[in-house]
Known about the structure:
The protein is mainly α. It is built from 16 helices and no strands. It starts with a helix and ends in a 7-residue tail after the last helix.
Amino acid sequence: xxxxxxxxxxxxxxxxxYVALLKPRVMSLVVFTALAGLVVAPGALHPMLGFxxxxxxxxGAGASGALNMWWDADIDxxxxxxxxxxxxxxxxxxxxxxDIGVGLSLLSVAMLYLATNWVAAALLAFTIFFxxxxxxxxxxxxxxxxxxxxxxxxxxxxxxxxxxATGGIAPEAxxxxxxxxxxxxxxxxxxxLFMKDDYSRAGVPMLTVTHGRAETRRQIWLxxxxxxxxxxxxxxxxxxxxxxLAVAALLNARFVWHGWKLKRRSEAEAExxxxxxxxxxxxxxxxxxxLHFLAMMAQAWLVRxxxxxxx
Length: 311
């Protein structure tokens, strides 16, 4: 058999590749937090309209993901974590990713407006713009604060859900925004601690690259303290209560403890155990956000059902 015959022809993109273009794992977090914002908001939205709102918010998140993959194809190609994404993998062309992103952006915003109200639609449009332009095209390659400022994009979904249900924004929605905004830096910096070489190769000025791992650990610890204060503060807000506060107290005690252990580690210790503690903290951060929003929804359900659990 000749060498030419032994080479497998490149496969064509399938449905799964176009789904991957929308970053479904990120989309799942967007859907869940947007649902939480919609559920804990006062008033009642018809279930079909609520379903439509979540669907179009999800499409907006997918649009952001596609635009991000279009612009970052050069970076993704040199990072192990992203090299197999559809665009650097050669399955979807950059032009296709761009067109899908723009098309879904326009569709999601227009349909959210028709299903709910202009406030929710405007917030979704701003979120897509912020993630695709402010974060992806500008902040990501320019400043080590890219994740800090860019984290606002991921913090908007519960605010959009709240606006879809109420037609406006309230302090409770800002509390939810703050929870995700403050969670984002320690979450992504923990990832960067054991993925530093990827960011160095790609020329992305992540904090681990510009300031080193020791400073990154210190910043994670500081953000963890502020995050814990905000998470507990929500317990005394209009969307809090004893059930939420009990869950938040347990989660944040654990999170702060692991953040402290992370801060005290030396680079030699981390290398010796393959960054096990950093990977553990990263996994813990995933459940941290999910359980806080789940507790908010449980608290709202108890109050509406007239069961013990409200202040």
